[in-house]
Amino acid sequence: MLEFISRMLGKESASSKTVAKERLRLVLVHDRASISPAMLNRLREDLIKVISNYMEIDEAALEFNLLQDDNEVALVANIPVVKMKRDYATKT
Amino acid sequence: MGEIIVVTSGKGGVGKTTTSANIGTGLAAAGHKVVLVDTDIGLRNLDVVMGLENRIVYDLVDVTSGNCRLKQALIKDKRFENLFLLPAAQTKDKSAVSPEQMRTLATELKEEFDYAIIDCPAGIEQGFRNAIAGADRAIVVCTPEVSAVRDADRIIGLLEAAELRNPKLIINRIRPEMVKRGDMMDISDILDILAIELIGVVPEDESIVISTNRGEPAVMDQASKAGEAYRRITRRIKGEEVTLMNLDVPLGIFDKLKKLVGIR
């Protein structure tokens, strides 16, 4: 009844389209982030290759994940550095 | 050299087949030589929507597997002599055709026709991969519902991964009075989310049911609103600039009252 009155007055409670849009936004954040494990693995290897140009890293302890929560997706990597490569500047 | 246009959506029941039939018929009415290709093997329907179901002898699988020549399988439309249908096989499944065979067929169709409209099956599996294999451009059909928009988003991603760039969007079965009430996503809501170019908006229209009952595409019905929308889409496909149809609904008595009192 209250809803009916507020509708009559033109003060719509959150319209169902707003709800639809917000739900879609969230579900698409997840859908668009769902990349295959194979691709994630390739990304991991590429990342190691690039970083290894600059520093020596502990590959075994490397953590690499695509984290999703309700509102966002983040690529989170924890990469322990063993030592920096001193010769990089001369190598280029 | 013709052009292959695939009509796809991901979700079923949003109007791919109706859209294919109307676009194809519209292009033929404009004088182009057109072929409609039904790739929904096992669940063919473009034949009944076009009213050509009684004339089928050979089908798509007969052509791709070499059982007959392309010309033997093409069914001439009742209304236009420059419009043809290549029906899907009904007793086989999607694996009866390969993307490679579809590419070969596309080359052949391009030599013969100005436009080939490919009606894609629902889903993202082999049927989808077959349908898009030889396509030059893609039209994505979507209704203003959460499920359809979500699937459209997935399809757009897959089309781009398959190098089919810049797909165009048709928003189908929109209900202006619901949009006005705030109970249906409107054009800009959907474009915000999908971020692709719009090629047309088709209103929900009973005349579509009636025209499908009769096997006569609504695009030929001058009185049909959906038909008018499809006529405009047809012209846009040919590259013309056409304004969007006015879908505004007249104000109801309550709206008039509210306006009078100055509430909104």
Automatic annotation (TrEMBL), chain A:
SUPFAM superfamilies: Cell division protein MinE topological specificity domain
Presence of keyword Metal-binding: no
One Pfam family of this chain: MinE
InterPro entries, per the entry: MinE, MinE_sf
UniProt superkingdom: Bacteria
GO annotation terms (biological process): cell division; regulation of division septum assembly
Keyword Transit peptide: no
Keywords of this entry: Cell cycle, Cell division
Reported function: Prevents the cell division inhibition by proteins MinC and MinD at internal division sites while permitting inhibition at polar sites. This ensures cell division at the proper site by restricting the formation of a division septum at the midpoint of the long axis of the cell.
Sequence similarity: Belongs to the MinE family.
Protein name from the UniProt record: Cell division topological specificity factor
Encoding gene (name): minE
From TrEMBL, chain B:
InterPro entries hit by this protein: CobQ/CobB/MinD/ParA_Nub-bd_dom, MinD, MinD_FleN, P-loop_NTPase, ParA/MinD_ATPase
Stored Gene3D superfamilies: P-loop containing nucleotide triphosphate hydrolases
UniProt GO molecular function: ATP binding; ATP hydrolysis activity
Residue ranges occupied by any CobQ/CobB/MinD/ParA nucleotide binding domain in the UniProt entry: 5-217
Biological processes, Gene Ontology terms: division septum assembly; negative regulation of cell division
Pfam families: CbiA
Keyword Nucleotide-binding applies: yes
Keywords per UniProt: ATP-binding, Cell cycle, Cell division, Nucleotide-binding, Septation
Source organism superkingdom: Bacteria
SUPFAM superfamilies: P-loop containing nucleoside triphosphate hydrolases
Record PANTHER family: SEPTUM SITE-DETERMINING PROTEIN MIND HOMOLOG, CHLOROPLASTIC, SEPTUM SITE-DETERMINING PROTEIN MIND HOMOLOG, CHLOROPLASTIC-RELATED
Family: Belongs to the ParA family. MinD subfamily.
Designated name of the protein: Septum site-determining protein MinD
Species assigned in the record: Candidatus Desulfosporosinus infrequens
Classification of source organism: Bacteria, Bacillati, Bacillota, Clostridia, Eubacteriales
Gene: minD
